[in-house]
Amino acid sequence: MHRLDRLVARNTGASRKTVTRWCKGGALTDREGAPLRPADKVNPEDLPMEVLLDGEPLPLRDELHLLSHKPVGVITAMKDGLHPTAFSLVAHHPLSAELRAVGRLDLDCSGLLLWTTHGPLVHKLTHPKYKIQRTYEVALARPPTRAEPPATLEDGTVPHVVRWSPMDAGDCHPALARPDEAACYARICLDGGAYHEVKRIFAAMGSHVLALARTRHAHIELPHDLAAGESICLPRHELERASAPSDAPSSDPA
Ligand code: URA
Fold first, then answer.
1. Residue 197 Cβ < 6 Å to ligand 1
2. 190 CA to middle of ligand 1, Å?
3. Whose CA is closest to atom 7 on ligand 1?
4. 254 — pLDDT class (breaks 50, 70, 90)
5. pLDDT tens digits along 47-78
6. What would the pLDDT profile of 176-227 be if each residue is shown by its tens digit?
7. Mean pLDDT of the chain
């Protein structure tokens, strides 16, 4: 059972003292307008549910899972002294203080970034031992001189390239920047997740990545119409499904 004051504090970011004040002042009520008390109990099975704060609907939940479109120039961090953070773009969601990014995207990369309040899912979706596939699209400065991805990178990392293929500019996801200098485009699917892995793979193939976007994490795709900086809620079962090792249909693009 959840205590109401703790649940409201987690969902709104307010302190429990503030929530108690809301209750005492009659600002926090159920949907019929009956006043709520800080120590009221909420059955987890009744979540998500809605209460009213000053007459306005206030959704309460115990967990949150998001899909966001990270723009270029935003750092995958909760806090940073120098750059705007990806977290600041999801901080308006309830329970945001408990959200964790599912992996990272470089400052100069865009695309799909998942978030969840459920720590074990972050681990299952990112740890290399679970081999969860991620798909990226890249704009390249020149065509690769080698068709085969390298067996190892310069620091000994073994890249796990599931497949890669050149692609037409017209087929690229809208999240991928298309610089004027780009000579060609490609799509690559990996089940690893090493530092700067995609850039280092194409460098080892004799090319250079000018722009990079993640378009898919397991079966979850970045919707074409989700603008940069925007985020949408996902049901937990989508992330559970994504973290299942068998979820890698070979008919997926690239
Ligand atoms: N590979 C990279 O080089 N950068 C990313 O952000 C993700 C994968």
1. yes
2. 11
3. 105
4. low
5. 999 999 999 999 999 999 999 999 999 999 99
6. 999 999 999 999 999 988 899 999 999 999 999 999 999 999 999 999 999 9
7. 94
Q: Please, where in the chain does CATH 3.30.2350.10 lie?
A: 65-242
218 alpha carbon, distance to own chain's centre: 12
Give me the pLDDT at residue 252, please. Answer: 53
User: pTM of the predicted model, to two decimals?
Assistant: 0.91
Q: How high is the pLDDT of residue 192?
A: 80
Ligand 1 centre from 216 Cα, in Å? Answer: 13
CATH class belonging to 65-242 = alpha beta
Q: Which residues contact 180 (CB under 8 A, 6 or more apart)?
A: none
User: Which residues of the chain does CATH 3.10.290.10 include?
Assistant: 2-60
**Which fold is adopted by the domain 2-60?**
3.10.290
